[in-house]
User: Fold these one by one.
Assistant:
Number 1:
Amino acid sequence: MPESKLANLDVAVIGAGPTGLMLACELAMRGVRVSVLERRQESTNITRAFAIHARTLELLDSRGLVDDVLKRGFAVGSVAPVPGATVSLAEELRVRYPFILMVPQSGTEHVLAARAERLGVRVIRGAEVAGLEQDLNQRNGGVDITLGNGERVRAGYVVGCDGAHSAVRRLLNIDFVGKQYATHIMLADVRLTRPPEELMFARTNNEGVVLVLPFGDGWYRAIVWDRLREQEPLSTPVSMADINDALGRIAGEEDPSDPVPPGLPTLTEKP
C-alpha cells in the first residue's frame, strides 16, 4: 500500500467545513503540525448553513476574521413573526454584533480556508478517508489513515469534523445517538419576483411556518414547514410548485382576485 506524500502529522483533521478549518487554524497558531483532509475535490459554492449568530461573530472578531465574513453577508437586525409585531435584536441583544448575519456556509469556509493557508495548514482535497487504525505497538502510538486511493497517512491524533454522515464515526463504530426527526422542513435557495418588505420574513398559522431570509445578493433562503406534507414519505421530491403552494397557504392573504397576494414572496427559480 503506497505511503502518502504527506509528512507525518501531529493532527489530521477530517473535514474542511467551518468546524474543521477553525480547529486547524487554532492548532496551527499553537505550533501543531496539522493538515485537513477533505473528501470533496473542490471548495463548494452550496449554501448549506446560512446564518452566523452574535457570539460566533465575537469569536471570529477575536481572530481578526469578522470583517472578511461581514463583507460576504447581510445583517438582519429585526424579525416580524406576525404582521404588526417586530422583534428588534438590537434591543434584545446587548452584544457587540446585535444581529444575525445571513451568509452562505461556502462564504464562511472561504474565509477560514484563506486563514488556514496563511498559517501554513495544508487542506488536501479529494482525500477521502477509507480506513483508520490506531497503532498500539509503538511507544508514542498514533493513527494510520488509509485514503480512498490507497495512500496511508500517519498522525498522532485524528479529529472527525466531517458532519452528520461522518466517515470517522462510521469507521470507529460510534453511534449517532438519537432518533430521526420525521417531519418535513422544505429548504430552497431562490430568487423572488416579489421580495418581502421585511428583511426577515416570518409567518405562521395553522397550516405551518414560513421563513424567507435574504443573502443580500438577490438570493433568498426559503424555509417551510407545511402540515399537509406530514403524511408524505421523506423521500418525496420537492418542486417549485410545492414551495409556492405552501407559501400561499401559510404566508398569503386571502384575496381571490389576486393569485399572488400583496407582500407574499413568490419564486422565480426552482429550489
Note: The first helix runs from residue 18 to 29.
Number 2:
Amino acid sequence: MSDSIVLVGLPGAGKKRFQRAFCQTFPQVTVESVGSKHCADASLHLRSESQIWCVIDCRSPLLSTTAEAYLKTLLAESTAVVLSFVSEAELSMQVYWQNWLKKNDSKQLPRKRWQGLELVDKTGWQSVSQPVSLVSLKAIRQEQKPFQTHSMAFGDLSTSKRFHLEHLLMVLDAAKNNLAMDLWRVKGCLFTYDYDHPVAIEMTPSRCDVFAADSESDQAFLELLGPQFDQAWLDQAIGACQL
C-alpha cells in the first residue's frame, strides 16, 4: 500500500470519519482529508504524488447540480472511490450510486465500500490503487473559488435560547430550494423546544440529519458553508426561529 492517501469529496461525505477509522487500522499510512477550506491545503502542497480516493456518501441522491459538477471534477482526478455509510444506505440508493458511477466514472476506478462503522476491515485495502501526480488536483484547488463560510454562536448550550426545530429546518430548506442558495453544509448543536436534550444538525448537499447531540458538546452553534448564500437573510431567518 502507498504510504500516502488523499481523501476528496463533497462536504459531509464522511471523509474525516473514514480517515479516523482507516488510520486506526493502518497507522503506518498518512491519510489527508482535503476539505472545503484552502487553508487546509498546506500539507497537500508538500507532496508530489499520492493515491486520491473520492469519498461518496451513498445514503442519498445528489440534490444540487453545482455539487454534482464539483464531485465529477474530483472524481476525474481520483484513483479510487470509497462509498461511505453503506450500512445505512437503502438498496435503491446503492443502485442509484452504482448507476451514477457507471455514467460518470469513465476510468472505471476501483471501488471500496465502507460500512460507516468505527473500524475499517484489514482485508482488501492494500492494493486499491497506485499513486499519481497531485499536480492536477492542486491546480483544481487553486482555481476553485473559496467557499463562503459563516459561524453563528449562541453561547453556552445549557443556557442558550431554544429553537423551533421545524421552523429552522424549513428555513434551511427554503434557502436551498426556494431561494437557490448554494448551501452545501450546515453543522450545529442546539437546544430546541421539541426535545429535552440538545440536538445535532448535519446537512449536506444530499440530506439533512437531526439526532441527539454528543454529550461533550457545551456550546450552541451553527456553521454554514457553501459556494454562495445570503448571510444576512439567513441571520434574520434563523434568528426568527428562536422567537
Note: The chain has two domains: 4-143, 148-241.
Number 3:
Amino acid sequence: MTAKLALKPTTTFAGATPGFADSPAEARTGDRSGVRLLVAADDGIRHRRFPDLVEELRPGDTLVVNTSATVNGELDAIWRHDDGEQPVVLHAVEGPGGWVVELRAAPDAGSPVLDAAAAVAGTGVVFAPVMLHTGFSSQEAGEAPQPERFEVPAATAQLLNHMKDRGDRVIAVGTTATRALESAVEGGRLVARSGWTERVITPDDPPQVVDGLITGWHDAGASHLLLVEAIAGAERTQRAYDAALAGAYAWHEFGDSCLFL
C-alpha cells in the first residue's frame, strides 16, 4: 500500500479545471517548439515558449538532466472481472526485484529541454547528468512517491559542488532530477551515490542543492507539488499556478512547462 503524506501542498486551483494534453507537442503541432514556458522568477511572471529558455539562463547555470530512458509502463494485459475489464499497469518499483501493479495508466513524455540544448551551447550554461528510474509519475493526492533507483556520478557531484562554491545556480530539469540530487547530499555537499531513495522533498525538508526547477504542471495535492513549493516557495508557486490556469496552460506529461527561478 502506498504511504500517505502528513503534509499537504498549500497551492489551490480556486475552482478552475486544468486542461490536459493527451499527446506530445510534436504530435499536435509537428515539433516541440510550441511548448509554452511560464517563468516564475523574483521579478514576476513571464509567458514564453520553450525555445526562449536560453534567454532566461545565465553563464554558470547548470541544468541537471535525468538520463534514465523512458520505459513503457503499461502492460499488454487486461484484468477481466465480474464488472467488466480494466488495463493492468506496472507503475512503480518497491525495491530490487519488486514491482507494484495498479489499475490505472499514465503516458510517458520526452522533455522539450532536449530541443533547447543546441541553443544553450556556447552560452556558458552547463549540463550535468544524473539517473533516477521513475515509478508511476503522478501519484494520487496525498500519496508519497515510491522508492526509486538513482545514481549521482562522481563527476556530477564534483562539478555541482564547484559551481555552488562559485555562487552559480543549479537548475533541475524535472522532479526526478531533483530527487536524485537531493538523495546524494551529505553534510550540505553532493557525494557520488547510487541505490534506492525514499527521499521526499517538502517545505519541511527542503532541497539543499537545487536552486531552480523546470517542471510540468501537477495536480492539486500531489507530492510533486510539495517539491515545487519547497524550491519556489508557496507564494510564488501559487502565483505561477494562478497564471497558468488563467492562461490555459496544458497539464501533465505532454503539457506545457514552468521554470521556477
Note: The CA atoms of residues 40 and 240 lie 6 Å apart.
Number 4:
Amino acid sequence: MTGVQKGLEWDPGGRNGGEVEVRKVVKAKLVGLTHIKRRILDHEYEGLQRFLRGDPGVELYSANKQQAKRFYRRVKPEREYPLSIRKDLIRVERRDTKIARYWARIPVKLRRGGVWVAIKPHCEITSDLEVCESKLLRRGGEYFLHLTVKREVELRTSYSSVLAIDMGIRHVACSVDTRSGKTHFYGRELRRVRGHYFHLRRKLGRKKLLKVVKRIGAKESR
C-alpha cells in the first residue's frame, strides 16, 4: 500500500498487521541562492528544456539526460518541465545553519559533485525517511524541490475509535465519534450565506437590476 499526498502525516506505529512502505512528497523552496548557484541551476534547468526540444549538443549532466529520456517522451513546446533527479544522486542533510535547517545536493554539469543549496521544506525531514527520486521545478523565477520520501510503518487493522462522516445537502457534513458518541453538524454558516445571496438576487431581480445580479455571480461559492 503506497500513499503519496502533500502534508501526509504518518502513523508512527500500529497495533496489528505487518509493515508496509508509505511515501509522500515534501515540497521545499530553495532559499539564499547566491548568484553563482542560481546561474548553475539556470544552466542545468534551461539546458534540460533545450534538450527536450531537440538540441542534442546542450551541456547537461549525463544522468539528468537519461532521466529526461526516461520520463519525457512526449514534449509540449509551450510547457516547462522539471528536472528529475535519481535517488542515488540527490542528498539531503540537516545542518541547522543561519540560512536554513536543511540542505540538498543537486547534480549539475557545471560543478563536480553537485551544488549544495539551502532548502525550506513544508515539514520536518526526519532521519528515518529515505529520499527517493525527486524533482526540481522553477516557478516565477524561484526554485522548488519536490522530495519523494518513504518509510516503513506497521499496518493497522483495528482501531479504538472511528470518526464517521456523512455528507448531505442540508448539513454539508455530519461527524460522529464512536468513542465519545458526540455528533457534530456542519453547514449553518454556509446556509446563512446561501440564504443571504438568494434573497439578494430575488430582491434585485424584482427591481430589474439584472446587471447587478450578473456582477454578483456565484460569490457565495467562494
Note: The first strand starts at residue 19 and ends at 31.
